[in-house]
Amino acid sequence: MKADNILPVYRINNREINLNFFKNVLGMKVHLEEGAMVELGGHQNQEARVLLEESPAKVKYASAGSVKKHARTVIFANADEVNKLSRNNISNKKVEFLGNEGFSALSPEGDEFWLIASDFFQKCDSLNTGLSDFLVSELKLNVASLTTARRDFEIFNEISTVFKLTFNEQVPNALQNTWDIEAILVQLPESSDLKELYDRFSGYEPYLDKEQKLLSVYLPEGLEIWFEKHY
Question: What is the total count of domains within the chain?
Answer without folding.
Answer: 1
